[in-house]
Design brief:
By secondary structure, the protein is α/β, with parallel strands linked by helices. The protein has seven helices and eleven strands. It binds aspartic acid and magnesium ion.
């Protein structure tokens, strides 16, 4: 039985501290998943959270550079075309990046002694319309695994449309996958692990005086995203605001 997102109960407001025994979604960006060594570090952190008693769903991006590499291969065979047939195959192709990183993370978790299973968007399924807007997420299978003590990994970036075609959510779309899954499952928190350690007033790599913000309202975050902040895909912020998903942006290079 698929849960329609618009029927969701609104989650309680922003929390700074994770409650004990929470349901938490971790999202890891491509840099965090960029090598076997980094995937092992992700697995260690995830295992630590799971051993602390939380139920963890992990949403990884493809390994850094992988989506560009795949799309580049398509471009070598045929110049970009606006046809539905071409875009269908691009989705089919690009979705493999997240499938690989998800399986690798499951393997790394198992190697840490932590039971884990990975699913593609279409296995869950994450249903989208033909324009790749998420319509519903069926959480039955994921919940059954969580209840059996497994960490569940769900590919970011992808879903399946009404005709059974794989869809992808646009560049940076794993953020939106993670927030949508958190909303559908009424997770206590959605933690976005990335290669920066939070949301800054401006890009700290460019402006050394940039300040890290303690909390950001969804409205401020939307404004920053529209002004070019690349921390989060804009659709994920819209989603988080609409369904009141408490979100934190954290560095994957810190130990917690
Ligand atoms: N792998 C996809 C991209 O490079 C989605 C993501 O990373 O969020 O855009
Ligand atoms: Mg991103």
């Amino acid at each position: 039985r698929a849960k329609t997102l618009c029927n969701l109960r609104r989650a309680p407001g922003f929390r700074h501290h994770t409650p004990p025994m929470a349901l938490i979604v971790h999202k890891y960006g491509g840099t965090s998943m960029g090598s076997p060594e980094r995937i092992r570090n992700v697995a260690k952190r995830v295992a630590k959270w799971a051993r602390a008693g939380h139920q963890i769903v992990v949403v990884p991006s493809a390994m850094s550079g992988e989506t560009n590499r795949l799309l580049g291969l398509a471009g070598e065979l045929a110049p970009a075309k606006a046809t539905a047939e071409y875009h269908r195959e691009l989705d089919m192709l690009a979705a493999t990046g997240e499938q690989a990183s998800s399986a690798l993370l499951a393997i790394a978790l198992q190697a840490e002694g932590m039971p884990a299973v990975s699913y593609t968007g279409w296995q869950v399924p994450v249903r989208t319309d033909s324009k790749a807007r998420i319509e519903s997420i069926d959480d039955q299978r994921v919940r059954a695994d969580l209840d059996a003590g497994r960490v569940v990994i769900v590919t970011g970036f992808q879903g399946i449309d009404g005709d059974g075609n794989i869809t992808t959510l646009g560049r940076g779309g794993s953020d939106t996958s993670a927030v949508a899954i958190a909303a559908a499952m009424k997770a206590d928190e959605c933690l976005i692990y990335t290669d920066v350690d939070g949301v800054y007033t401006t890009d700290p790599r460019v402006v050394p005086a940039a300040r890290r913000l303690h909390t950001v309202s969804f409205e401020e975050m939307l404004e920053m995203a529209s002004l070019g902040s690349k921390v989060l895909q804009i659709r994920s912020v819209e989603f988080a605001g609409k369904y009141k998903v408490p979100m934190r942006v954290l560095s994957s290079f810190t130990p917690w």
